[in-house]
Design a protein that fits this description.
The complex is a heterodimer of chains A (433) and B (481). Chain A is built from 14 helices and 16 strands. With 433 residues, chain A is α/β, with parallel strands linked by helices. Chain B contains twelve helices and 16 strands. Chain B has helices spanning 3-8, 24-27, 152-159, 208-215, 224-256, 271-281, 293-306, 323-329, 353-359, 377-390, 397-400, 406-412, and strands at 55-63, 69-78, 81-87, 96-99, 104-107, 109-114, 162-167, 175-183, 200-205, 284-290, 310-315, 332-335, 364-366, 429-432, 443-448, 451-455. In chain B, strands 1, 2, 3, 4, 5, 14, 15 and 16 form an eight-stranded mixed beta sheet that branches. An eight-stranded mixed beta sheet of chain B has the order 6-7-8-9-10-11-12-13. The chains are: A alpha/beta (433), B alpha/beta (481). Chains A and B meet through helix 11 and helix 14 of A and helix 3 and helix 10 of B.
Chain lengths: 433, 481
C-alpha cells in the first residue's frame, strides 16, 4: 500500500472522509455526456459541492476556492454502474469462506439480504473503480452449483452499493427480488421451464393470501404456507407491484410466458439474460419491461439460448426496449461492463445508448435514478474523467469521483505491479511496499 | 525383426496378400503399431487449403507481427502464400484488389489455449470431452479424439479472426494429454483441420486443479507436494521407457548387421510413455497450465532434472513475479488481459502482467481458454496494453499484436509457417474494419492459406455448422437482417 492509499484508508477508518466530501471541486474543459436534459456538452464544466453535483453547463461560474480538475477536453460521464454482480460480497471465487453473495436458506430465501454481507473494504472495489465503476447492483445467487442449490426459488434481495469503500456505501438495501427461470432452475424445481413458472405463481399467490390476512397467519387460523413469514413479508412489495422482480430468462418462448405472467399478476419485472430477446423484441417493448443483457453472449450455449447473437442489445433498443448492459457476474470482472457496452455499440447499439446502458438506465431500472446515473444538479457526484472514448479498451479513467470525493487511482493489483516491476537483486520484493 | 519396416509400407502391412513367390520379408508375420518409432503419425492431417486466388490487400495499416507497422501498406497473396508485404507495392497483373484504406491488416490471430471442440457448444453433458478425470496422468489421451468439428465455436472464433488454434485437454490432471494444432477451417473430420507439420503439445497442470480433483477422490495427489511427486515419477518412467526402446533398436540394428543369432524382443508399447518420451526427445512441446510464479520455478527445476524444455506456461497469473527467470529459460507465457481472482492461485493476477513480461523480454502471449474470449483476442490484448501504458510501460501496437500472432505461433511450434506477414509464410491474414485493438473493430475478411474462409459482406463466404443449420433464427452474419 502506498503512503497515499494508507493515509486515505486511515482517513476513512477514523471518519475523516465526511469532511473530505465537503470539498468543492470543479471539473473544467470537459466533453460532458450528461445523459440528462443538457445532453452532450462539447466544452463544459461541472461543479461538485457537498458530495453532489451543484451545476453543469457550458458557461457556469466556478466557485472561488474550488479545486479545479482540468479535463483538457477529455470526456466526462456519469460513473459506471456494474449491474448484476457480486462485487463486494466475495473475494476469491473458488474459496467459499471468502464469499457472501449466496445466503438463501430453507427459512430465509426471498428475504435474504445480500447487503449485510457486503464488505466495503473488499480488495475488488478499488480494482473495479479503476475501471470507472462507481456503483454496483449486487444480485445474490443460490448457494452451491447445479442440483446442490436445492429447491429454493428466490436467491434474495438485490442491493445497490457505491464504490467509495466507506462504511456507508449501501445506496439501497433492497431494490428488487431475484428469481431464476432458466433451464438450471427448471432442472432443480421439477424439470421443465413450466415448473419454475408454476412454482413462482404459487409462491406469489401465498404472499397475496398472507398479505390479505396477516392476522390469520399470526393466530394460526390460516392454511399452512410453504414459505416462512420473513419470505412472505419480503414478497409483499413484489405482489403489490411496488418493487420489481428480476427474472433470469433466456428463450424466446419463455420470455413471452414470463411477460404474460407479469402482466396477469400486475408485477413489475426486469428481464435478465434474454439472449433470444431480439426474436420477441416487439413483445418486450410493448410490455415496458426493461432488460439486462450481456452483449458478448453469442454462442448457442444452452438449448434455451440457441439464437444468441451480438446484435441483441442493438435490436432490442431499436424496438424501444430499455437496455441495461451487464458485466460477467463475478465482481472481479465488474470493470468489463464498459467493454460490453462497446461490443453492443460495435454491433448496432447507438454510442450514447451504449453509455446510457451502463449509467442512466441501470439507475432508473434499479430505483436509484435520484442518486446517480446522470450528470445533473442534485445527484450524487459520481463522475469519471476518461482519457478517451469510455467504451474503448485503450481508454483509462483519469479521475474517478464517488459521491463527490476523488478516489485514489490505486489498487492492490497496482501495488503488486510496482513491487515486481523493478526487481532489486539485492533485496527480496517483500521489503518493497 | 522387420516389423518396423513393414508397418511403414502399406503393401507389406499384412492387409494385402503377399504376391506369390514374394520376398522373404513378406512371409514374415506383421504386427503393425507396436513400435512407436514407426507409428508417430497414426492420425495424419487431411487438411487441404480451400481454393484461393491472387489477392492484393491495398492501402491498409499493416501490423506485420514482426514488430513493424506499415501505413498505406500492401500485402500480396499468391498460391496460398504471402509473397510481398510493404508500402505502395506494385499489384501483380490479374490480382484481385481489396481496398483496405482506413482499415487494418494483421496476421491471422492465433489462440494458443482453446478448448473448442473438446468442450463444444452447446454446453451439454454429451459435449463435455475435455478432461479425462480418471487418473492424474493421462498423457496417453489426445485432445483431437475429443474434438467435435461441428462445434459452432470454431466459426465464431473465425469471425473473430482466429486462423490457428491449439486445442488442449483440460487441467484436471498433472498430465492431461496431447494438444493438437488446428487450422480454423470447417472440416468434416478433425483430421481435415489438423495443421500440417505442426508438433504436438503435452498439456500439464500445476497447482490447485489436480490436487482438488484427485484429493476430492481420496487419492494422490491431494497436495502440491503430491503433484511434484507425480510429475517426477512419470518422467522417471518415461526415461526408463526411452532407454529400453533405445537399447532394443540398437540390438535390432546389431542383429540386422549379423551380430547375434536371435532378434531382440521389443518392449511393450505404452501410449502414455510415448507422449512423455516425445517431450524428452524434443518433438512434443510442453504446454504447462501454471498460475503461481514459485510453482513455475519448481516446474523449471523438474525440466532441468529430466532434460526437457517447457515451451509455455499457460494462464501464468503470477508470471510477472519471475519474469527474469522466464526470460533466462526462454519460456513463453500465455495469460489474459484481466482474468483474475477465480481461485487463490489467480488472486495476484494483474492487468499489467503481459506488459511487464513483454518489457522483460519474455515471449508474451494473450490466450483465451474460452469460447467467447477467443472471439476478441486483440481486444483482450488491448486491455493488457492499456494497463501497461498506465503503469508507464510504453509498448506500441505493432509490438502488442505479436501477443496474439507471432508469439503464440512460436509457443506452439508453427512460427516458421504462420504468425507473421512475411513472404513465404502461409497466407493466414485478417482484414479489420478498424484498429484491431478497438472495441469497435470487426473482421471484414479472414484468409487461411490464401483462401477467404470468412467475409462479413459475402454470405457465400460465411460458414455455418451442422448444429446451427436450420435453427430458428439467423445465427450467422449473412442471414442477419
Amino acid at each position: 500500500m502506498s503512503l497515499r492509499t494508507s493515509l486515505l484508508a486511515f482517513a476513512a477508518a477514523v471518519g475523516l472522509v465526511g469532511a473530505a466530501q465537503a470539498e468543492t471541486i470543479a471539473i473544467t474543459h470537459a466533453k460532458i455526456v450528461t445523459l440528462g436534459s443538457a445532453g452532450q456538452i462539447a466544452d463544459g464544466s461541472i461543479v461538485v459541492k457537498d458530495g453532489r453535483i451543484a451545476a453543469v453547463g457550458a458557461n457556469i461560474a466556478i466557485p472561488a476556492g474550488a479545486r479545479v480538475i482540468d479535463a483538457q477536453g477529455h470526456p466526462v460521464t456519469p460513473g459506471v454502474v456494474a449491474s448484476n454482480t457480486n462485487l463486494g460480497a466475495g473475494e476469491v471465487e473458488g474459496e467459499a469462506s471468502s464469499d457472501d453473495y449466496a445466503g438463501a436458506s430453507d427459512h430465509i430465501s426471498a428475504a435474504f439480504d445480500v447487503s449485510l454481507g457486503v464488505n466495503p473494504a473488499s480488495m475488488l472495489i478499488p480494482v473495479a473503480r479503476l475501471g470507472g465503476v462507481t456503483r454496483a447492483v449486487i444480485v445474490p445467487e443460490l448457494q452451491g452449483r447445479g442440483d446442490k442449490k436445492g429447491e429454493k426459488l428466490f436467491a434474495g434481495q438485490v442491493a445497490v452499493i457505491d464504490l467509495s469503500g466507506s462504511a456507508n456505501s449501501i445506496t439501497r438495501r433492497s431494490v428488487a427480488l431475484t428469481v431464476d427461470a432458466s433451464s438450471g432452475a427448471a432442472a432443480r424445481l421439477g424439470g421443465s421451464h413450466g415448473s419454475v413458472l408454476q412454482r413462482l405463481e404459487a409462491d406469489l399467490d401465498e404472499a397475496v393470501s398472507y398479505g390479505a390476512n396477516k392476522g390469520g397467519y399470526e393466530h394460526g387460523t390460516h392454511r399452512p404456507f410453504e414459505q416462512s413469514k420473513e419470505d412472505l413479508e419480503a414478497l409483499q412489495p413484489i405482489v403489490q407491484g411496488k418493487e420489481p422482480l428480476l427474472v433470469e430468462v433466456h428463450r424466446a418462448a419463455d420470455i413471452r410466458r414470463v411477460i404474460e405472467l407479469g402482466k396477469r399478476l400486475k408485477l413489475k419485472l426486469i428481464l435478465d439474460g434474454v439472449e433470444e430477446g431480439w426474436m420477441v423484441a416487439g413483445d418486450i417493448a410493448a410490455s415496458g419491461y426493461p432488460v439486462l443483457v450481456d452483449p458478448q453472449t453469442d454462442l448457442p450455449n444452452q438449448f434455451e439460448s440457441l439464437n444468441s447473437r451480438m446484435e441483441n442489445a442493438g435490436l432490442l433498443a431499436a424496438a424501444g426496449v430499455t437496455i441495461v448492459v451487464k458485466p460477467p457476474y463475478t465482481g472481479h470482472y465488474a470493470r468489463q461492463v464498459r467493454y460490453n457496452a462497446g461490443y453492443a455499440v460495435a454491433h448496432g447499439l447507438p454510442w450514447e445508448a451504449g453509455i446510457a446502458a451502463i449509467t442512466r438506465n441501470p439507475a432508473q431500472v434499479f430505483g436509484f435514478a435520484e442518486k446517480a446515473g446522470r450528470i445533473e444538479p442534485g445527484l450524487d457526484a459520481d463522475l469519471v474523467v476518461w482519457s478517451g472514448d469510455p467504451l474503448e479498451m485503450l481508454t483509462v479513467p483519469l479521475h474517478v469521483l464517488v459521491k463527490g470525493e476523488e478516489q485514489p487511482m490505486t489498487s492492490r493489483a497496482q501495488d503488486l505491479a510496482r513491487r515486481y516491476g523493478a526487481l532489486d537483486p539485492a533485496q527480496p520484493p517483500a521489503y518493497r511496499h | 525383426m522387420v516389423l518396423s519396416a513393414c508397418a511403414a509400407v502399406p503393401s507389406q502391412s499384412g492387409a494385402e496378400p503377399a504376391p506369390s513367390g514374394g520376398n522373404e520379408q513378406a512371409k514374415e508375420k506383421s504386427y503393425p503399431g507396436l513400435d512407436p518409432a514407426t507409428d508417430s503419425d497414426p492420425f495424419p492431417s487431411t487438411y487441404r487449403a480451400l481454393p484461393s486466388s491472387t489477392v492484393a490487400l491495398v492501402g491498409a495499416t499493416v501490423l506485420t507481427g514482426t514488430g513493424a507497422r506499415i501505413d498505406n501498406g500492401t500485402v500480396i497473396i499468391d498460391g496460398g502464400k504471402i509473397t510481398a508485404v510493404g508500402a505502395n507495392l506494385p499489384v501483380p497483373a490479374g490480382a484481385k484488389v481489396v481496398d483496405g484504406h482506413g482499415k487494418f491488416v494483421t496476421p491471422g490471430i492465433i489462440d494458443a489455449h482453446s478448448h473448442l471442440g473438446v468442450y463444444a457448444t452447446p454446453e451439454v453433458w454429451a459435449n463435455s470431452d475435455g478432461n479425462e478425470v480418471t487418473d492424474p496422468n493421462t498423457a496417453q489421451v489426445w485432445a483431437e479424439h475429443s474434438v467435435w468439428p461441428q462445434d459452432p465455436g470454431f466459426i465464431r472464433a473465425m469471425e473473430g479472426g482466429i486462423t490457428t488454434l491449439e486445442i488442449l485437454p483440460g487441467s484436471a490432471n498433472l498430465f492431461g494429454g496431447r494438444a493438437v494444432i488446428l487450422k480454423n477451417v470447417p472440416g468434416r473430420t478433425v483430421q481435415d483441420m489438423k495443421f500440417p507439420g505442426a508438433p504436438y503439445g503435452l498439456k500439464m497442470a500445476c497447482g490447485e486443479n489436480p490436487k482438488r480433483v484427485y484429493g476430492g477422490k481420496g487419492r494422490a495427489p491431494s497436495t502440491r507436494m503430491g503433484n511434484i511427486f507425480g510429475y517426477r515419477k512419470a518422467w522417471i518412467d518415461a526415461q526408463d521407457y526411452r532407454r529400453k526402446w533405445d537399447e532394443y533398436h540398437k540390438k535390432l540394428a546389431d542383429f540386422k548387421a549379423g551380430k547375434g543369432d536371435k532378434a531382440p524382443d521389443a518392449p511393450k508399447r505404452d501410449l502414455q510413455m510415448d507422449t512423455l518420451a516425445g517431450v524428452l526427445d524434443g518433438s512434443i512441446l510442453v504446454q504447462n497450465h501454471c498460475y503461481r510464479g514459485d510453482e513455475m520455478a519448481q516446474m523449471i527445476a523438474i525440466s532441468h532434472e529430466f532434460g526437457f524444455h517447457i515451451s509455455m506456461f499457460h494462464h501464468g497469473s503470477e508470471a510477472y513475479k519471475v519474469a527474469d527467470l522466464l526470460k533466462k529459460e526462454g519460456i513463453c507465457v500465455a495469460t489474459w488481459g484481466e482474468w483474475w481472482g477465480f481461485k487463490m492461485e489467480s488472486f495476484d493476477g494483474i492487468e499489467e502482467n503481459a506488459a511487464l513480461l513483454s518489457k522483460a523480454g519474455v515471449c508474451t502471449v494473450i490466450h483465451s481458454d474460452d469460447a467467447i474470449l477467443t472471439q476478441h483476442l486483440p481486444q483482450e490484448a488491448a486491455i493488457a496494453l492499456a494497463a501497461g501504458r498506465r503503469a508507464g510501460i510504453d509498448i506500441d501496437e505493432a509490438e502488442a499484436i505479436k501477443w496474439v500472432t507471432a508469439n503464440p505461433a512460436k509457443s506452439i511450434g508453427v512460427l516458421d509457417k504462420t504468425g507473421t506477414l512475411e513472404p513465404g509464410k502461409m497466407a493466414d491474414v485478417v482484414l479489420w474494419s478498424a484498429d484491431p485493438f478497438s472495441v469497435y473493430a470487426l473482421t471484414e475478411q479472414v484468409y487461411v492459406d490464401g483462401a477467404v474462409v470468412f467475409d462479413r459482406h459475402d454470405p457465400t463466404r460465411q460458414p455455418l455448422s451442422d448444429f446451427e443449420l436450420g435453427q430458428t433464427g439467423p445465427a450467422h452474419p449473412g442471414a442477419r437482417p
